[in-house]
Amino acid sequence: MRQAKVLYKNEEAGLLTQLDNGTFVFRYHDAWFNATDKPPISLTLPKNQQEYQSEYLFPFFYNMLPEGTNKQIVCHAMRIDKEDHFGLLLTTASYDTIGAVRIIKENS
Q1: What is the domain count for the chain?
Q2: What is the Cα 13 distance to its own chain's centre?
Q3: Do residues 9 and 21 make contact, with C-beta atoms less than 8 angstroms apart?
Q4: Number of C-alpha atoms within 13 angstroms, CB side, residue 41?
Q5: Distances (CA, A) of 35 to 13, 28, 32
Q6: Where does residue 68 fall: left (phi above 0), alpha (psi -120 to 50 degrees), or beta otherwise?
Q7: Which tens digits make up the pLDDT trace of 83-106?
Q8: Rounded Cα gap, residues 91 and 104, in angstroms
């Protein structure tokens, strides 16, 4: 199991988990979910439910990944399998992202 903190404008909004069977879970933190002034991190992950499950990396997070030559360079330099989307997300989405969401590896 691998986990990552999901930050929205540098505040922890939730937790993204890849389970041992390869499926994914995104869960809003209780405080974020219950706060009326906190927005959803994405239109595809609205705050009308607190936990989402998927067999694949959620499209919102997948769209944060580099593509083409940039993906090849990062995968080669960081020794990441090109099919390890979660590992690639952890490596590339912690600092320089487009938008308000960043992904930080959970220290466990």
Answers
A1: 1
A2: 11
A3: no
A4: 32
A5: 11, 11, 5
A6: left
A7: 899 999 998 888 878 889 999 987
A8: 9
Tokens describing residue 44: 């595809």
| Cβ atoms 60, 70 nearer than 8 A | no
Predicted structure pTM score: 0.89
84 is in which domain, residue-wise? 2-105
**Percent of the chain residues topping a pLDDT of 90:** 74
Q: Cα separation of 78 and 76, whole Å?
A: 6
Contact 41, 13 (CB under 8 A): yes
- Summarize pLDDT for 7-45 with one digit per residue, the tens: 999 999 999 999 999 999 999 999 999 999 999 999 999
Q: Using CA atoms, how far apart are residues 48 and 64, in angstroms rounded to an integer? A: 23
The amino acid at 12: E
* Residue whose token pair is 């998927």: 54
